[in-house]
């Protein structure tokens, strides 16, 4: 069985899991039926419990699906506390369904897999030791990778049914009203956790900061929460994010950023009221600063900035260059602190951000998205999931979701070290080429042949060399050579969904 990006799919597994192959980025206008959680009616005036173990005993049983959020990133203390208790109790056959997995979770997940406690995982991504473990066949069943928008869609339609959500928050009152803006472990927007709070059968908040009732503003509400657990420390704010992320001094990244800015400024979309989403890497942050000066020079403002938010984006808001920031996650302390003080920095949940099955996601209104890539091939397909060795070392995140913008730009170096970024075929297709418009490297740009309008607009811009993507691929190969083909077994260790729930690719076990 092949899908529309020419990827072989395991027919038996597709039938077993009731999957359809990816066909198109056009979602259409289906009518969908959403699910609702079970609710245990609460009428008391205090949900605070001192023992996390007692809560786990009451809520978690063999075969359940449990979830966590990743807003703390590597400052997360919640996951390991909960999993230690689950392991101690000998609970088995759980499905782990976090919004994503961070490095501090890896060792505990591997321990839980080896113990038979975790037998299924669905996530946006994984890296490090866990990615290596899964890539070499360590997990019994295939991981299901979903974008942030697709995770929201899957929760809302019941494909992911969360039995218990364990959500760390920097503050809560005794009834479960909580936000991410106050306390010792502030991380700003609770955008991904809001889906779990709304749809999980049981919602457990963990916090080190019980505040007076009623706690406002309430991102998570008492109507959604079953238990509030007081812990010594919910997270390390120094590992949630640094201050304002430093402007890159890397000449290659600066050159790429400058060319990305040239593409935007000379496109049909650079006009008063345009909207954009950037990432958090060095080149993407540099684009934000180049774009700032171009907006000042042209005398225009943006209607909104979207996605994971950084301090440079918040600065544009403060200067009046961006009217609204639509915030699903904050990547540094400056952005997190800003949401508390600026009413134009709006917290949004993952459904509002990017769910393809709702009545209008923010990504549907995006003019420009600047995204990264581990690999991009001559059909403009993008890989952000597996490395050149075939090992899982990335995350879909919002990549597929933001790529629905009117102008999707991939910024990436031509080669990284001795590894080509522009290749004949990517190892894993995550974002299909039909939704990618321009590739920008330090050597020049390539425009998707589908976009004749962009070819006309960008072909004669001074200092912006335009190449056929095949020529960039050959240039990359001439610099680093042609690698030996990767060796995989026939066993599928992961399925990669497109944002509509169809299968865009599979990841096979790496051959030892």
Automatic annotation (TrEMBL):
What the entry lists under Gene3D superfamilies is as follows: Glutaconate Coenzyme A-transferase (3.40.1080.10)
Gene Ontology terms for molecular function: citrate (pro-3S)-lyase activity; citrate CoA-transferase activity
In the record, which residues are listed under signal peptide? none
Any idea of its EC number? 2.8.3.10, 4.1.3.6
Tell me which UniProt keywords the record has, alphabetically.
Answer: Cytoplasm, Lyase, Transferase
Reaction catalysed by this enzyme: citrate + acetyl-CoA = (3S)-citryl-CoA + acetate; citrate = oxaloacetate + acetate
UniProt superkingdom: Bacteria
Protein localization: Cytoplasm
GO biological process terms on file: acetyl-CoA metabolic process
Q: Name one GO cellular component term.
A: cytoplasm
Q: Which Pfam families match?
A: CitF (PF04223)
Q: What is this protein called?
A: Citrate lyase alpha chain
Instruction: Supply the source organism for this entry.
Output: Limosilactobacillus mucosae DSM 13345
């Amino acid at each position: 069985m092949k899908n529309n990006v020419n990827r072989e799919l395991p027919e038996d597994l597709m039938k077993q899991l009731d999957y359809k192959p990816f066909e198109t980025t056009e979602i259409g206008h289906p009518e969908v039926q959403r699910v609702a959680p079970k609710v245990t009616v609460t009428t008391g005036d205090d949900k605070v419990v001192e023992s996390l173990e007692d809560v786990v005993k009451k809520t978690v049983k063999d075969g359940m699906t449990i979830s966590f959020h990743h807003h703390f990133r590597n400052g997360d203390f919640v996951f390991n506390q909960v999993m230690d208790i689950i392991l101690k109790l000998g609970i088995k056959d759980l499905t782990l369904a976090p919004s994503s997995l961070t490095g501090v979770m890896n060792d505990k997940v591997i321990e839980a897999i080896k113990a038979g406690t975790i037998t299924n995982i669905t996530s946006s991504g994984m890296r490090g030791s866990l990615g290596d473990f899964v890539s070499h066949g360590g997990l019994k069943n295939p991981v299901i990778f979903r974008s942030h928008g697709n995770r929201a869609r899957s929760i809302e339609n019941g494909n992911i049914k969360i039995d218990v959500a364990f959500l760390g928050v920097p503050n809560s009152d005794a009834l479960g009203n909580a936000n991410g803006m106050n306390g010792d472990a502030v991380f700003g927007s609770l955008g991904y956790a809001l889906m779990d709070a709304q749809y999980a059968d049981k919602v457990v908040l963990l916090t080190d900061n019980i505040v007076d009732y009623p706690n406002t503003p309430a991102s998570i509400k008492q109507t959604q929460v079953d238990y509030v657990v007081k812990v010594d420390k919910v997270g390390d704010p120094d590992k949630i994010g640094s201050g304002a992320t430093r402007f890159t001094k890397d000449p290659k990244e600066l050159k790429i950023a400058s060319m990305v800015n040239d593409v935007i400024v000379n496109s049909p979309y650079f006009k008063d009221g345009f909207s954009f989403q950037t990432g958090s890497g060095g080149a993407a942050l540099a684009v934000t600063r180049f774009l700032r000066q171009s907006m000042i020079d042209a005398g225009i403002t943006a209607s909104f900035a979207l996605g994971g938010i950084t301090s440079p984006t918040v600065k544009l808001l403060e200067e009046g260059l961006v009217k609204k920031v639509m915030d699903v996650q904050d990547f540094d302390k400056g952005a997190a602190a800003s949401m508390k003080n600026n009413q134009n920095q709006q917290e949004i949940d993952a459904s509002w951000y990017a769910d393809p099955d709702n009545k209008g996601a923010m990504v549907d209104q995006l003019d420009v998205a600047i995204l990264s890539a581990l690999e991009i091939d001559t059909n403009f397909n993008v890989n952000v999931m597996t490395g050149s060795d075939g090992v899982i070392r990335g995350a879909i995140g919002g990549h597929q979701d933001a790529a629905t913008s009117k102008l999707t730009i991939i910024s990436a170096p031509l080669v990284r070290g001795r590894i080509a970024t522009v290749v004949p075929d990517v190892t894993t297709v995550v974002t299909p080429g039909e939704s990618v418009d321009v590739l920008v490297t330090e050597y020049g740009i390539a425009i998707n042949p589908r976009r004749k309008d962009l070819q006309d607009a960008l072909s004669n811009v001074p200092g912006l060399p335009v190449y056929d993507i095949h020529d960039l691929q050959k240039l990359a190969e001439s610099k680093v050579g042609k690698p030996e083909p990767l060796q995989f077994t026939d066993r599928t260790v992961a399925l990669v969904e497109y944002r509509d729930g169809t299968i865009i690719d599979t990841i096979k076990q790496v051959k030892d």
